[in-house]
Amino acid sequence: MAAWLALATAPGTAAVAAPADAATPMVADDREAVPAWPAVRVLLDAGGEMTAEQLAAQPHRFDVPQGTAGNLGRQPGAVWLRLTVRVPGAEPVLRVLDIDYPALNQVDLYTLREGRLQSVARMGNQLPLNERPLRARGHAAELLLAPGDTELLLRVQTKSSMVLPITLRTPAGYTSHESASQLLLGAIFGLGLCMLVYSLMHWVSLRDSVFLDYAALVGGNVLFTLTWFGLSGQYLWPDAPYWSLQASPLAVLVAVAAGARFMRATLATRELGRIADLALQGIGVLAALGFTLGLPGWLPYAFLQSLTIVLGLGVGVLVLPVAYLRVRRGERAAVYILCGWAIYLAGALTTAALLRGHLEPGFWALYLYPISTMVEMSAWMAVLGLRVQVIHRSADRARVETETLRVLAQTDALTGLPNRRGLHQHLVAALTRATPQQLLAVYLLDLDGFKPVNDRYGHDVGDALLAAVGQRLQAQLRGGDVVARLGGDEFVVLATGLADEAAAQRVGQKLLAAFEAPFDAAGQRCSVGLTGGYALAPLDSSMADELLKRADAAMYAGKQAGRQRVQRGGRSMAAA
Question: Tell me, which fold does domain 2-169 have in CATH?
């Protein structure tokens, strides 16, 4: 914590030291890229009042830059840079002076020959794209250099840090360098866009706010990368330079606010420690407040930059121990979060050191942050994948529980057969398939002699006998037929696909014959008989209630006729 606080609040690296010796000229030879910093001399202009005319003939006022090569950190006012380019031979050459740090606000390039001003080119992200010497993401200008020595005078002023990776490139070298940079940044943008679409689609389908937080997190990081590397000024708002000045810290604040919410939800920080949870919540609120006040320009850029560094690293400092505790508990999501934050902190600390002038602006110093951010986002997308699995498992459990409740509501607890509600479902479905060629027989069956058994042996034996009756009835039927218990000692059988009434009578006869053998009920040998009535669909009716009424009437008629029979109700009362 002390390390990142020091990086976030330390002043910029000292820009100059002792007066310079004679500067060594840059040689514009056949090399595609010549670093300029060894030939650079600097002059601070805290008040921003000096002019190129005043300094053209005063090379002695410039000093050797000390500290980190190509990086002066934060500096008040303007900084003047002076260097000499030597062209060997007798022919002029075309070169591109490239400052590959798009966050600089104003860069004025003057060319001098023998102490006299020859030309001026104005660059910087405060200019619309069409007013720059080259319509590029960074700061570059073509120079037609005559043989001999040409002096270059640059005036740089910015609200950001004075990161100055100055290189003299051939046109082909500049094109190659830009192509490689655009390819890398395009890959980062494409990966971020895929993550953004992934999270938004899951948010739309699952309505889980964590996916929306992740989308805002990815969007903020992608927008920061595009702005910091000049792509937004080149492609998104080429004629609105204000956003190139403000978008970088604002995008990071969006990412910080969303990241704090994402971490609170995925790590369930409230369960582990209220202090860490409140601190993350406070960081999210501060980031949102900073974004709100920074959007109209009410907060200074330097303050916004420091706020993003402190809050961004603060989230990491709070999350890492919480994630570690979750890892100790064996939680896979925490492993991904811990790895992601560790990689992110490496990039964030590198960027903080770069902005404070402690690192030379090489490839890794400039690009480690967006690369580490995308790696972090990829790790966190794995967290979302685990969350999707949890949501689907919860939905599956809910469906199973709902189906279980539905089955229980339609099942007789004693026999496991469908109850009156379950019978209705089966009967309605069977009626849709019943035709004159494929009859449905509805049998209503009542046990003969059940009450004496129940009174003699008790309810335990009676219940066991009812369960045994249900099993024996099922054993007499085909797989598609249904046995249900209405209550008491009344059962219903649905037999489908019967060719005619004779087939229905044969089924009834089979059911009667099944009760000739006694039952074993809880260790007691019990004998009961069967009396039933049936109706045929669609011959007798196609209504469920009407069929049951006809079968019930036939059953009672059978009771009055002497029991131990199954007969049809409706048009015919023929005994089976």
Answer: Immunoglobulin-like (2.60.40)
Neighbour-count burial for 128-163, b at 16+ CB within 10 Å, e otherwise: ebeebbbebbbbbbebebeeeebbbbbbbbbbbbbb
The answer to whether the bond into 11 is cis (omega within 30° of 0) is no
What's CA 133's distance to the chain center, in Å?
41
Kindly report the number of other CB atoms within 10 A of residue 55's CB atom: 19
Residue 407 is which amino acid? V
Given this chain, do its domains 2-169 and 184-398 carry the same CATH topology? Answer: no
Q: What single-letter amino acid sits at 323?
A: A
Single pTM value for the model: 0.71
Domain ranges of the chain: 2-169, 184-398, 420-568
In tens, the pLDDT along 408-434 reads 888 888 888 999 989 999 999 999 999
Domain 420-568: give its CATH code.
3.30.70.270
| 3-class SS of residue 573 | coil
411: phi then psi, degrees, rounded to nearest 5 = -120, 140
User: Would you name the residues annotated as active-site residues?
Assistant: 489
Average pLDDT value for the chain: 89
Name which of 308, 199, 209 is nearest 266 in CA terms. 209
Contact 486, 415 (CB under 8 A): no
Q: Name which CATH class applies to 184-398.
A: mainly alpha
What percent of the chain shows pLDDT beyond 70?
A: 95
What does the pLDDT look like over 224-255, one tens digit per residue? 999 999 999 999 999 999 888 889 899 999 99
Distance CA 410, CA 419 (A): 6
Q: Are 551 and 444 in contact (CB under 8 A)?
A: yes
